[in-house]
Structures are given as C-alpha cells and as structure tokens.
Amino acid sequence: MLRALTRALRLPRPWRPLQTRSCASDGAAGDPEIQVRVLAGPDQGITEILMNRPSARNALGNVLVSELLEALARLREDQQVRVLLFRSGVKGVFCAGADLKEREQMSEAEVGIFVQRLRGLMNEIAAFPAPTIAAMDGFALGGGLELALACDLRVAASSAVMGLIETTRGLLPGAGVALAKELIFTGRRLSGAQAQALGLVNHTVPQNEEGNAAYHRARALAQEILPQAPIAVRLGKVAIDRGMDVDIASGMAIEGICYAQNIPTQDRLEGMAAFREKRPPRFVGK
C-alpha cells in the first residue's frame, strides 16, 4: 500500500466501542482496541476511528486489525460519513507497526494468513468510499506508516517520526519505486517536516503540549471537505484512484463514467442553482 508514497508528490457524541472478539492482544479481555466517534454540530459528517492500545503503542495485532476491519465494513455503508479520520488515543504514537511480539508466537502458516489480513486492511482503507485522513501525532513506523499511506490525506505533527523500517527487522514492506525504494532499503526515519518536504504528508504542524496538533489540523482539513457535494467528492476519489494506474485514454474514460453518474444527482442541480442565485449551496448527498 505504498502507491500514495510513490505519487509523492463541538459537540461530539460519546465514544462508541465496537463489538470485539473475546480474545485481546494485550490480555485485557473485552477491552476494545479501537473506538468509533461520530461528530455532531458543525463537525457533522466527520467520523473518527481512534486507535487505543497503549500497552503495545497501537501495534497491529490480531484484535486491532479485526476491529479496524469490522469498523470499516460497517462505516462504508453509512452515507452520513463524509470524511473518515484516523487518529491515536495514545500520546506520542500513531501506530508502531506490526505487533512483532504477537507474530513471534505464530507458526509460518499463521504469519502468512495474518499478513494477508493486514494487506486486506490496507486495501479496505484505500478503497473506503469517502475521503480518509490520517492524523499522525507521533511514531508511525512500518505498518503504521503504511496505514497512513493508505489514507487519502496525511497530517503530521513536527514531533512525528515515520519510516518503513521493516528491513531493519528482517521483514519486507509493500513494494514501491524511487523514494519508496530508498526508504525501504535504508529503513530511514523521517520527521514531520522531512516527510512534508518529500511529499509524504500533506501538512506538518508544530506539536502542542497536549500532543494532538496533527489531529486538530486534520479535523480542520475535514471541515473544509464537509461543505462540498458528497457524491461528487466520492466519485472524484474513484476517478483519481482508478485512473492513476491506467493509460491516459482509460483514465479519461473512467473520469467520463464518474461524471455521467453525477449528472442526474440532486446536488448537481443544487450547485448550479446556488451559483445562479449567488448563495452557498445546500448539498444533501442525493
């Protein structure tokens, strides 16, 4: 899930834990490792996935991956989700990558199955119909960085540290070219500012005392997306994602198909009416 790298370029509802499997990577049976938050008020349309596995620095273990897959499956069918934001509930870390302690206890067959599930998770994030944003307020290493790269947009705090460090552990990350190869071959770690200079993240912000500066910037970015026509935004994402890996003629054909799907929408007519009447449009996602 390194295509993003190679392209380089206030009234919240309470936390709602998802139903999880009985086993837990940390041994704290029943404790959910992610939480889903649906924002309200001026943030209505923004949904957050909070990774909260402090004892393992949000490492991607079986339970965390299962809960993320379950949340994504549920949220992708919810038309009220206009922006999906990934963040951490653990100060100083976004996601430390794969849970190597857990993986060490697996057989070779189990490792193969888990790696396939991990790839499936990255694909599910990349294919999520609404725009996705990663708020990187701390370490994002290995699979943690790949998770962020699977998102459409990335915001990093100045204190963030990121890298594709799998080769330093004798492992192999996803495949890529040019910049991706350099980061994979060297296992180099980047600061937030270095990542922005390389086009790895969209924005870098100075970290604050609370350690959540990237989250606040990511939320502000999500708020910029909210007023736009939801169907047009989703179809625009499809056109870009599907068009990146094909020739120009095929890419134009994909764009044409997406545009055709947008023509009969109520939002398109509302957009033209608002322009004619010189008023802000009121999009409803239909």
From TrEMBL:
<keyword id="KW-0456">Lyase</keyword>
<dbReference type="InterPro" id="IPR014748">
    <property type="entry name" value="Enoyl-CoA_hydra_C"/>
</dbReference>
<dbReference type="InterPro" id="IPR018376">
    <property type="entry name" value="Enoyl-CoA_hyd/isom_CS"/>
</dbReference>
<dbReference type="InterPro" id="IPR029045">
    <property type="entry name" value="ClpP/crotonase-like_dom_sf"/>
</dbReference>
<comment type="similarity">
    <text>Belongs to the enoyl-CoA hydratase/isomerase family.</text>
</comment>
<protein>
    <recommendedName>
        <fullName>Enoyl-CoA hydratase domain containing 2</fullName>
    </recommendedName>
</protein>
<dbReference type="InterPro" id="IPR001753">
    <property type="entry name" value="Enoyl-CoA_hydra/iso"/>
</dbReference>
<dbReference type="Pfam" id="PF00378">
    <property type="entry name" value="ECH_1"/>
</dbReference>
